[in-house]
Specification:
Length: 359
């Protein structure tokens, strides 16, 4: 159904729906919208490679989408006694470390990585670790890459990956994924016999901390993971200036340099969530929801997340309805953003991935 995207009441939070087109001159985000079921979402992404790239907001979006694709769970409710831990997304609350959090965040993060990875069994590899010195390590110790496969054959079933990107504050670091054997290739001894986690103190095989530019780093990630679909957070909550323009430069260069048969679809999203409030800047977000990276290719799409979240904030009137803290959304919001993403991908008619062999 096509119409104006609106937020309507739901059993938990709110959900996206469409309303009839308004009278001319009235603000409207117009698009076709279909609520995807679990089987429909898996069919859409089967034989495709989706890469999400960004900060912790994008990381939790990955986890929300991964749960939905893996089991159909929208995370709008969470049975703690059945699951065995408190929350599916947020490390600060998941480990319930309370006052010890600030002094023990490194082990809390690692407990969080292990626990959330366990939610997906054999279907996810979490190339994740933080040392006690984080965030003052030199070089940085932060590795937080995750891969979810939609079936047991990682080269053809479909692959959803997360690459943390905290601007220039922490550049991507990762170990090579062997999709056929569903293991990590680590430079030193393995922490586990099944090779699904590298030893905590081993250096990652790839470290872009010293990449000459954001564009070069983004191209290195794209070359390594070979995504068919890229969901890029243009603006993060980390104090980088001008990162959005650098990503746009990458979009243009990648479009012209890639092979003619490469049909990678880039979807851009602005998620500097800490800025949302009810004063005039929030209202201005309702205007000009598109236009980022103009001219970077006809297969580029911009998710109108800024405008939709602003409308949600104005509709609920309470920030606590939308955000679990000052930056991160409640789980039901992430699921609705995934529904929006699935609609954009379906409308774009993304091409199935080509089977990939690893050496």
């Amino acid at each position: 159904m096509k119409g104006c995207l609106v937020w309507q009441d739901a059993p938990i939070g709110k959900e996206l729906a469409v309303a009839p087109q308004p009278t001319p001159g009235t603000s409207c985000i117009s698009m076709s919208f279909h609520r995807f079921s679990h089987p429909e979402a898996r069919r859409l992404l089967t034989r495709r490679r989706l890469l999400l790239l960004g900060d912790s907001v994008m990381s939790y979006w990955y986890l929300s989408l991964a749960h939905f694709l893996h089991s159909g769970d929208t995370l709008k409710t969470w049975n703690v006694s059945y699951r065995g831990h408190e929350l599916p997304l947020y490390e600060l609350l998941w480990t319930q470390v309370g006052r010890a959090w600030r002094s023990a965040q490194w082990w809390a993060w690692n407990a969080y990585y292990q626990g959330t990875n366990g939610d997906f069994g054999e279907y996810e590899i979490c190339d994740c670790y933080r040392e006690p010195c984080f965030t003052k390590c030199a070089p940085s110790s932060y590795v937080g890459v995750r891969h979810l496969r939609l079936g047991r054959d990682g080269t053809t079933a479909g692959l959803i990956s997360l690459m943390p990107w905290l601007g220039t504050f922490h550049r991507p670091r990762w170990n090579t994924l062997d999709e056929v054997g569903w293991t990590l290739r680590c430079d030193s001894y393995m922490e586990q016999a099944n090779k699904r986690r590298c030893a905590p103190k081993s250096l990652p095989a790839h470290d872009l901390a010293n990449a000459s530019s954001v564009v070069d780093a983004l191209e290195a990630v794209a070359v390594e993971l070979k995504p068919d679909l890229m969901l890029n957070g243009l603006v993060s909550n980390w104090p980088d200036r001008g990162l959005g323009s650098e990503v746009c430069h990458f979009a243009s260069r990648y479009k012209h340099a890639r092979p003619t048969d490469d049909r990678t679809l880039r979807v851009w999203v602005e998620l500097k969530t800490g800025d949302w409030n009810f004063v005039s800047p929030a209202k201005r977000r309702l205007i000009n929801a598109t236009g980022q990276c103009s001219g970077s290719g006809r297969t580029d799409y911009r998710l109108p997340v800024s405008a939709l979240v602003t409308r949600l904030m104005l509709a609920t009137k309470k920030r606590a309805w939308v955000f679990v803290d000052n930056v991160h959304f409640h789980p039901w919001v992430y699921h609705e953003l995934s529904q929006l993403l699935l609609n954009v991908l379906a409308r774009a008619g993304v091409a199935p991935l080509r089977p990939r062999q690893t050496n």
